[in-house]
Amino acid sequence: xxxxxxxxxxxxxxxxxxxxxxxxxxxxxxxxxxxxxxxxxxxxxxxxxxxxxxxxxxxxxxxxxxxxxxxxxxxxxxxxxxxxxxxxxxxxxxxxxxxxxxxxxxxxxxxxxxxxxxxxxxxxxxxxxxxxxxxxxxxxxxxxxxxxxxxxxxxxxxxxxxxxxxxxxxxxxxxxxxxxxxxxxxx
Amino acid sequence: xxxxxxxxxxxxxxxxxxxxxxxxxxxxxxxxxxxxxxxxxxxxxxxxxxxxxxxxxxxxxxxxxxxxxxxxxxxxxxxxxxxxxxxxxxxxxxxxxxxxxxxxxxxxxxxxxxxxxxxxxxxxxxxxxxxxxxxxxxxxxxxxxxxxxxxxxxxxxxxxxxxxxxxxxxxxxxxxxxxxxxxxxxx
DNA sequence: ACATAAAGTGACTGACTAGTCAATCTTTTT
DNA sequence: AAAAAGATTGACTAGTCAGTCACTTTATGT
Lengths: 187, 187
Known about the structure:
Two copies of one chain form a homodimer. In chain A, 78% of the residues lie in helices and 0% in strands. Chain A is built from nine helices and no strands. Chain A has two domains: 1-45, Homeodomain-like (Arc Repressor Mutant, subunit A); 48-185, Tetracycline Repressor, domain 2 (Orthogonal Bundle). In chain A, 36% of the residues are buried. Chain A is mainly α. The interface between A and B is large, with 38 and 38 residues. Chain A binds a DNA duplex through residues 1, 4, 25-27, 35-39, 41-42, 45-47.
């Protein structure tokens, strides 16, 4: 069954996010997932692997959510869409988002997991970077632009959460955050 | 003696940063600090308290480093200086910087430690926020500006590290990063 | 209906670690 | 220089938890 695997992953995501992965015993995860202690290890042969898989799962979820279904229009509109979707994801899935940050900075991930997770985003990053260099819309190094995009979307997510934004207000905020980025980058 | 306390804190900062605080036994910290196991608990009554104190220590170090000695000129020049100093600090003290991010997202800090650490920055933030609202240089909410400042300086630190920047090149990069922010914010 | 395989279980264990404390060493006081 | 106070020590303990494995339950094939 793959259902059990998903149950365990979901339980892990929730408990890791709320209490910290370092502070969450595998027994608690199993219980929360409604399976026996030993069953967890049938699906994930060690806690390390579970942590890695949780990270990859979250990145996959994110990638699937933000990737523009209809790609091709102008580079700016593609970037706008990615920008929008990432912020929405961060606001709508606070547990996932929180855990993403936690694991990124925790020294808990194996190198393999980091590489694998990066590979998921290679497609998206490739499109982005190609667009940036082709159009040379912007006089900044591509890698710095990527950093800026990540950083400013994170700032936007934090602010949106702080004010518990929804619907129109959130959409307004997202638009404005993109303008701020776009004007800055075009300096 | 306060020297021992400092030794323990420094050992903890190094080991926490490299291996993760969750993964660093108190015994290892004591050994690395050149004191006995029990001595650590004479200075920090629990590991939780040690972690909290490490976090506060780092924040103090940062505050001391970035605060403009000569304050008073224009708001923009003050902000420029804070911006500059924070990035320099992040680049020069990679262990401190790394651990700051790690602890922020780790669910390891007590609420009291977070509050105490925030208090250290209340002065700086106050000046900043007052400057922003007084001059109304910028049509964005103050809290969002703060988020943007933190986010964009972090991006600048990452990029500087990625390219192992130093001296003039680093200074150029810092200047540019501020321009990007400033132009964006004035949208 | 039976046999064989696969999936699930949970009590158990070996390793690890935060925190203790009685004993020892060092510093200060008288 | 003796005594008292304070600091340091590290062997020890009590608790926790990742991972195991002999057994049970469920699914599949004949």
